[in-house]
Amino acid sequence: MSTNTVTLPGGVCHDLPDDLNLAIRGDETAQAAWLDITPLARNEFICWIDAAKQQKTRDRRVGRAVDELAQGKRRPCCWPGCPHRGEDSTGQKV
């Protein structure tokens, strides 16, 4: 699999940011994991990174996301979930 030709998808309600896209493309194992996880799981990683208030924190989270994906983790650790997802008529997150 060429890391330069595969289109990496975003999440449920978040597009894949350029910095995370570039970082994932730099690690074949992380890229394979990104393509294997669900759109909701991708959304959680993206939202967790986007929630950083400082660039230093964002950069650290991008690196950590790539490391965690390469280790086989499918969700970011210690993240309660994306607050941007809506709810259906029963109150369940969608």
Give a short overview.
It holds the Pfam family OmdA. The chain is built from four helices and no strands. The chain has 94 residues and is an all-alpha fold.
Instruction: Specify the biggest β-sheet.
Output: none
Q: Which structural category fits the helices and strands? A: mainly alpha
Order of helices and strands: HHHH
Helix content: 40-55%
**Shape label:** globular
Distance between the termini: 32 Å
Any idea what the radius of gyration is? 13 Å
Strand content: under 5%
Mean pLDDT equals: 87
Number of strand segments: 0
Q: Segments where pLDDT lies below 50 for 5+ residues?
A: none
| Alpha plus pi helix count | 4
Structural summary, described in words:
With 94 residues, the chain is mostly helical. It has a domain at 18-70. Helix content is 48%, strand content 0%. It is globular. The termini are far apart. This is Bacteriocin resistance YdeI/OmpD-like protein. Pfam families: OmdA.
What is the topological layout?
Blueprint lengths: L17 H8 L2 H9 L2 H12 L4 H16 L24
Helix pairs in contact: 1-4, 2-4, 3-4
What tags apply to this protein structure?
globular, mainly alpha, 94 residues
